[in-house]
Amino acid sequence: MDKQKYVKEKVERRQVQNLENIDNEQQNNSSEAILEGYAAIYNSETIIAGMFKEIIEPGAFEGTDFDDVALYYNHDTNRIPLARSRRNNANNTLFLQPDTLGLKIRASIDIENNTEAKALNSAIRRGDISGMSYMFEVADEEWKDVDQEMPTRIIKKVSKVIEVSAVNYPAYEDTTIYARALLSLDNEKKALDNARAKKQLEIRKRRISIKTKINLGGN
User: Fold this and answer.
1) Euclidean distance between the first and final Cα of the chain, in Å?
2) Each residue's pLDDT tens digit, 192-216
């Protein structure tokens, strides 16, 4: 499979502001630091590029593929992962857990041997970085109010999470988003256009059906 084509057609990206360092008794003397945060929040309405509103439905991450998910900084997948989930085992350096709030992540990063991990941990402890972003694929969605200027997209099922990242510029409010992958936006615009076209087709069919009944003297 052409990887670039796969990424262009499948992958989407979102950002939230929820990453923090977890202090513990061994934190100052440990070679590892623990990071926790939410990669996604349920029922949090976000406006995507001024085109539509988006909501992740509770339970959207139940059964999602977390088999191989890596943690990076600013989505730089050319770098060594800061942590990684293999089959999402709790003993891995990265663990993803859906709960009642959303998709929670917990990562153990090596601040002794990895200079990027050490720098990231310092920035998070100082409050300079607090944002997360994740790349994912949608298996099921629903569009509402597609005939309105600002329709709503409800993500009902996320099929796969590919990677999560600590990012410089997260979304600062639930109703805004700072940055988006351009390819993702293009795909979502096409999905919105298709939803609107489907809605218009349903309206035309309904009108034809009503007109036919009238001409035939039906009720």
Assistant:
1) 54
2) 888 888 888 887 877 777 767 666 6
SS (H, E, C) 159-211: EEEEEEEEECCCCCCCCCCCCCCHHHHHHHHHHHHHHHHHHHHHHHHHHHHHH
β-partners of residue 109 are 33
CA–CA distance, 47 with 45 (Å, rounded to integer): 7
- For 15-30, how does the pLDDT look when each residue is reduced to its tens digit (9 = 90+)? 555 556 655 434 445 7
Strands laid side by side in the 102-110 sheet: 20-21, 32-41, 102-110, 94-98
Q: What is the model's pTM?
A: 0.68
DSSP string for the chain? --HHHHHHHH-EEEEEE--EE---TTTTT-SEEEEEEEEEETT--EEETTTEEEEEPTTTTTT-B-SEEEEEETT-TTSPPSEEEETT-TTSSEEEEE-SSEEEEEEEEETTT-HHHHHHHHHHHHTS--EEEEEEEEEEEEEE-TTSSS-EEEEEEEEEEEEEEEESS--SSTT--S---HHHHHHHHHHHHHHHHHHHHHHHHHHHHHHHHHHTT--
Dig out the tokens for 202 from the structure: 């349903």
